[in-house]
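Appendix B, record 7
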Amino acid sequence: MKKVYADERWCLGCHLCEYNCAFANSGMKDMVKALKDKTIYPRIRVEDTGKITYAVNCRHCDDPLCVKSCISGALSRGEDGVMRIDHNKCVGCLTCILVCPYGAVSQGENGVVQKCELCLANSCGSPACVEGCPNKALIYEEK
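C-alpha cells (predicted):
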C-alpha cells in the first residue's frame, strides 16, 4: 500500500502541506474562499524541534490502536489498508487521539476526529500535501 513519508532533510517548515490538505478536504473549489481568515483543520501537521522540521501524518498502521480503541466503531481499516473515519459514527470521545503513537489523529472543526485518508475521498489522485510540497519533502510511495 502506498503511504505518505516525510523526509525531514528537505522540509522547509513552510506549512504548505497543511494548507493544501485543509483546502483539499474543504470541498470548495477556491482556496482563498476556503481558507482566508478561517481556522484551518489540516489532517497533517508540521512539527518544529528547533533543529529540524517534519510533517506528522497517519501511518495507516498494520495493527492500528486507534481502530481498536474506537468505542463507536467510527474508525475502520478498508480493504485497501487505508484507515478511515465515519464522521457520522464518531461521538467525540477522543480516545483515538490519546492512543495514536504518532500523534496523527486530531480533533476536527465539529468536534469529531480527523486524520489523513490519503485524499482518496476528494479525488485528488494523490495526497494534496505531497503535490503541494515545494521541496518534495513528502513522498507518496510503497515501502
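Remarks on this record: The longest helix spans residues 16-24. The chain has a mean pLDDT of 93.
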